[in-house]
Design a protein that fits this description.
With about 280 residues, the protein is of the alpha/beta class. About 35% of the residues lie in helices and about 25% in strands. It binds S-adenosylmethionine.
Length: about 280
């Protein structure tokens, strides 16, 4: 019998399966092993060379995704907006979201990164605004959320599992999910084949690259994603960093009608405007 769960709108929706057994465990072990590098990369400490460029690219991506969730920096702060930061790592984006007024649940599978995220939250006096939980973010308890943000997580999953990840959280999300995928450009696909995509010490075991437009189209074609539509789309490319931001927006059960419109007009999938 298919597993179902009750969505925010009270209807029963199928519950997509977990990632392949061992996948999340492998990712946990990979990031646990390299937690010191992630902590440093996401800290204020000076880094040089490749890592400085990665950091600059990530900063642009974080600003893009946060802008989609919270609106323009100049706009009034959406006090208390409930945001899930799925795969929050050491909490860099969670604390930025909370500093702008959001109420954040960060979920992370690697224990050392969870510990660092909690330390940062404490040090910044943001414990009233952020809960950091250890576990599988696609099964995060504690919703519903107004929005979910999944930055630089899904490219560790094959496209079908990445779509399952999003579809599992969607019933708990009221307005939008913003996330990134690894864009399959001819250059990146070539670099990945020859092993030059990341510096050796930072290289993930497998990186799954997709065509962003095709990924969103196939995600939204799933029966369990009824009521969601494509939103904005933006590539962020910097030396040693390439990631593609996508947004999906809840429109209502019939799949027609407008989104809540808070963050401006939705673009057709594949409107891949470079920033
Ligand atoms: C590349 S890091 C990005 C961290 C953070 N989102 C950021 O951009 O600063 C990917 C993170 O996702 C976490 N992750 C991957 N799959 C996860 C899952 N199913 N549940 C929780 N965390 C996950 C990893 O442990 C890792 O910390």
């Amino acid at each position: 019998m298919a597993v179902t769960r009750t969505s925010l709108t009270g209807t029963q929706v199928p519950h997509p399966p977990r990632a392949e057994p061992g996948r999340v465990e492998g990712i946990r072990a990979y990031f646990e092993d390299r937690s010191d590098r992630w902590i440093r990369l996401t800290s204020g400490e000076e880094v040089s060379g490749v890592r400085a460029r990665v950091r600059a690219g990530r900063a642009r991506m974080a600003t893009t995704l946060m802008g989609w969730v919270l609106g323009d920096e100049a706009a009034p702060h959406p006090d208390g907006l409930r945001v899930l930061d799925a795969g929050c790592g050491p909490g860099e984006v969670s604390v930025r979201l909370a500093a702008r007024g959001a109420r954040v649940t960060g979920v992370e599978v690697a224990p050392s990164l969870v510990a660092t995220a909690r330390e940062r939250v404490e040090a910044l006096g943001l414990t009233h605004r952020i809960d950091v939980m250890e576990g599988d973010a696609s099964r995060a308890p504690g919703g519903p959320w107004d929005a979910a943000l999944v930055m630089d997580v899904l490219f560790h999953y094959p496209p079908g599992e990445a779509a399952d990840f999003l579809a599992r959280m969607a019933p708990e999300v009221g307005s939008r999910i913003v996330f990134t995928v690894g864009p399959r450009t001819p250059l990146l696909a070539f670099l990945q084949r020859v092993g030059g995509l990341f510096p050796r010490s930072d290289r993930a075991p497998v990186l799954h690259l997709v065509r962003p437009r095709a990924f969103v189209e196939s995600l939204l074609a799933r029966p369990d994603m009824k009521g969601w539509t494509a939103g904005r789309s933006r590539r962020v490319s910097a030396p040693f960093y390439a990631s593609h931001a996508l947004e999906i927006v809840r429109t209502g059960l019939d799949g027609a009608g407008g989104a809540d419109g808070a963050d401006g007009p939705a673009a057709a999938p594949g409107a891949e405007g470079a920033p």
